[in-house]
Amino acid sequence: MEFIDKITKISNVTIDAVIENQWIWEESKSAAEGTNVTLWWVLGLGSGEKFSRATIVFIQTGTVVQNNVAVILQSGVRQIDAKYQSRADITREGQNVSLTLTNVTLSDDGAYRCRVETSTDAFGKDRTTVLEVTGKT
């Protein structure tokens, strides 16, 4: 696999992003405890592929257990796990999927995997962003 590092400037914010097979995403992101953070993925859908659903799972640092955080369907219906109900939101616009967590805690530290299923790939493709939560300063 070929990874291409890219620095993208959006709304005067510099973002380190990775591009691979038409996907764009952040490999890692840091946030201070108590702040809000948005993780995002730009999907690399191929010709003829239509978005079916995106599922975001969380794997806490030091474990291998996966927990569903949120799902968004083609229709726009969102399903957010009860554990995240009051502080998570998932959105999709075209090929952009984002997860916003409010008031992050040290227990949010870990990997967030966005898996996308399409009309031609029911198994889906996924990309992972690692969130590092630091203590309050």
Plain-language structure description:
With 137 residues, the protein is mainly beta. The strands form two sheets. It has a six-stranded antiparallel β-sheet, with no helix packed on it. A hairpin with a 5-residue loop joins strand 6 and strand 7. It has strands spanning 4-10, 13-20, 23-25, 28-32, 37-42, 51-60, 66-73, 78-80, 88-93, 96-101, 110-118, 121-134. The chain has no helices and twelve strands. Helix content is 0%, strand content 62%.
Order of helices and strands: EEEEEEEEEEEE
Molecular shape: globular
Tell me the Rg in angstroms.
15 Å
How large is the share of residues in beta strands? over 45%
Total of helices: 0
Chain-averaged pLDDT: 81
Q: End-to-end span in angstroms? A: 38 Å
- What is the number of E strands? 12
> What order do the strands of the largest sheet run in, or round the barrel if closed?
1-2-3-5-10-9
Low-confidence segments, given as residue ranges, are 1-14
Which secondary-structure class do the elements indicate? Answer: mainly beta
Roughly what percent helix? under 10%
What composes the largest sheet?
Answer: 6 strands, antiparallel
